[in-house]
């Protein structure tokens, strides 16, 4: 992995999510539904939801990264998927922590676009190699990112795709 060069602290996370929410407000976009990509998007989505006074939040669980810079061949949707009637004809804001390769965001956006009237993406970080250009980005970087919620190793390893 090399030296960690991009470190997001809890304090800076608060500032980042507020600035990202301000971008959304400034654009005039008012999503009907917020869709958080778990796990990385949970905390940004919660903070942005408070800033936008949005209570219609859903999650979608997608497994792609299995370790530091280790991925599955393609993103895998894990159950339960959001009921599509929550998305039908609505505008959806998809939130994640980072658009690294962009594969996960692209998969979720394609899922939403089958049902929603419009979908946009918001991330804290976007990497230059991302397959999609996100609509709202707090910071662009090509460095490895240490998030405050995932910078320490798990206390136990129970992650399995067959749960």
UniProtKB/TrEMBL annotation:
It holds the Pfam family Pribosyltran. Keywords: Glycosyltransferase, Transferase. Residues 5-150 form the Phosphoribosyltransferase domain. CDD domains: PRTases_typeI (cd06223). The keyword Translocase does not apply. One of its GO terms (molecular function) is glycosyltransferase activity. The keyword Glycosyltransferase applies. It comes from the Bacteria. Gene3D superfamilies: 3.40.50.2020. This is Phosphoribosyltransferase.
């Amino acid at each position: 992995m090399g030296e960690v060069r991009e470190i997001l602290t809890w304090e800076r996370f608060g500032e980042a999510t507020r600035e990202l929410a301000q971008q959304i407000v400034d654009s005039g976009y008012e999503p009907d539904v917020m869709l958080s990509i778990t796990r990385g998007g949970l905390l940004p989505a919660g903070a942005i939801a408070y800033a936008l006074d949005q209570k219609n939040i859903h999650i979608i669980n997608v497994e792609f990264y299995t370790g530091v810079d280790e991925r599955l061949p393609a993103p895998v949707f894990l159950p339960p998927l959001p009921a599509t009637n929550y998305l039908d004809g609505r505008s959806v804001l998809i939130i994640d922590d980072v658009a690294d390769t962009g594969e996960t965001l692209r998969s979720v956006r394609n899922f939403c676009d089958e049902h929603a009237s419009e979908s946009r993406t918001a991330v804290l970080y976007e990497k230059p190699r991302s397959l999609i250009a996100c609509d709202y980005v707090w910071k662009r970087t090509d460095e490895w990112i240490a998030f405050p919620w995932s910078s320490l190793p798990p206390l136990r390893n129970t992650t399995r795709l067959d749960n």
